[in-house]
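Exercise 7. Given the components listed, write out the predicted structure of the assembled complex. Treat all entries as one system.
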Amino acid sequence: MGLSNVVGDLSLEMEVDAFRRLFPLRFYERHLSESIRPDGRTLKSARDTSVALGAVASADGSALTKIGSTTMLAAAKMEVMTPSADAPDEGSIDCCFVAVEYYMPSICSPLVRPGRPAEIAPVISKQLYDTILSSGMIDLKELSLISGKAAWMVYLDIYCLDADGALFDAALLSAVAAFSHLRFPVVSLNDEGRLVMVPEEGNGDKSGKEVVNKEKRKLSLSSPPFSLTCALHKNYILADPTSEEEAVMETFVTVVLNSSGHLVSLYKPGGPVLTQTSVIQDCIALTRQRMKEVQEILDESISGMEID
Amino acid sequence: MEIDRIDGRSPNQLRPLACSRGILNRAHGSASWSQGDTKVLAAVYGPKAGTKKNENPERACIEVIWKPKTGQSGKQEKEYEMILKRTLQSICILTINPNTTTSIIIQVVQDDGSLLPCAINAACAALVDAGIPLKHLAVSICCCLASSGYVILDPTKQEEEGMKAFAYLVFPNSIKLILPEGSSHAQGERMEDGIVTSVTHGAMSVEDYFHCLDRGRAATAKLSDFLRRNLQPQVLADGSKAG
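Answer.
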């Protein structure tokens, strides 16, 4: 009881920044009781999101995504592989043939150093891989080239450039954006009967090689998944937390929905707050709303690319 | 709409549970938990002095090491470690022993489906064996969704791989009221209806997920009873000391 009196007196004299550092929980609770957050957002609104496609010119598909300050760069490359014997008409998305890697280099956060990798990086990497598979976004039959002999394998690398909360959301959005920007590279059969990539400029003119897939087509995505992370604190639900909010409020829920309304993943890894069913329903409703916003942003940037 | 399970269980039936505590000598607490053929061994060392860097020194720190049955630790193991660490952090009272580290080591002995829930149950029993102060116990269950929309509990590995989606759920154990009825009014939703942890794989509709939650919650009553009976202090076999 004595301490709260002291805090009360000190807070009148202390500067805002000092109070924020010394008593972060009280700082946030003061804001939450007025239904606002320190950066001026309401409890249910997410930060400004932007997607820029084609950020990496050498990759077959790439995207740079920003949610507030959190920045993710995703790049997808395709290679020709032989498919497994029991699924000759499909490309592979099982553990060997789609590699989704998520990296957190030291640039992204003061807590990550070369000798001390971020604990959360392999976890997010695995979560992304599971989500992309379970959502059924990619039709495996599209990845087949020559039935039984050649199929595509997709390598997706996601780099976190700035870690400021909601890492999984930004990473998933950048993965979906990179896939929607993906163009199949042109391949042709060379003399030894192997498929080689045809370079951009010549079109196999020199030796009259037959081009196997003439049109540079896109990958068609059915029902891409979108996610929203919500931080929970007592009775408050905060959508899209920053890293400071995540550190103060230890409980968060990540809901991933795909555009047909199915729940792809509901991830709540422990945390002091026990969620009731009503809270989960609120989080799912917030995710639905967010999905519409994000889908619009993604569609805008895709149509922007196509005009060029 | 009945589903025939390979081992003849009904959809809500759990596999035979077995739990033994105090099996390792050097560990401060240990437990082995088996659900059918899935068996996990958990050992607790702690509280030890000091916390790891970047951890808050005003609270106790929990560290989890997951050892798979074969092979090296990969991303799957790191994910399990993180889920287990956060789950156990929410059930331990972290303010009692500040600036200490409690290590929980999980060793998978056999994996026949529903591995993470089995490990969470084993870790909880091992923490009790070590005497670490807890707010409540955690009971964990795996619910699978078949493509026909039917929910089955505690699947074997074969069932898990054939299912459309599954969810690992952790609930607090059910409260046994010792006060007379009516003296404590439930304010809105009770604590034991809350979810500690939920991890899902595979796409399912939102209603199916809530079905899984209900079935899982109902099954935790059975698990809580088993845990409560099992955690009674063991009475000496040769007569009572109280004369």
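Discussion: Helices of chain A lie at 2-13, 16-22, 24-33, 120-134, 167-181, 243-248, 277-307. Chain A touches chain B at residues 111, 116, 119-120, 122-123, 125-127, 130, 134-136, 250-251, 258, 261-278, 280, 284 (CB under 8 Å).
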